[in-house]
Structure to design on (57 residues):
């Protein structure tokens, strides 16, 4: 998964699933506000996969 997909996943979980939007303009404003707030707290994503082959179960 690339970083753009991860960001949209965070956006969906934190804002879109819980949000109540009165209009399309309200949705745009809330996404813009979320993005600006997220920029202040964002940190680089940490890659945890060590390269070993995954086992099929």
């Amino acid at each position: 998964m690339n970083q753009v997909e991860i960001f949209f996943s965070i956006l969906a979980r934190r804002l879109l699933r819980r949000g109540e939007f009165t209009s399309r303009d309200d949705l745009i404003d809330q996404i813009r506000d979320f993005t600006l707030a997220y920029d202040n707290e964002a940190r680089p994503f940490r890659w945890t996969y060590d390269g070993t082959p995954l086992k099929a179960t």
About this structure: Helices lie at 3-16, 24-41.
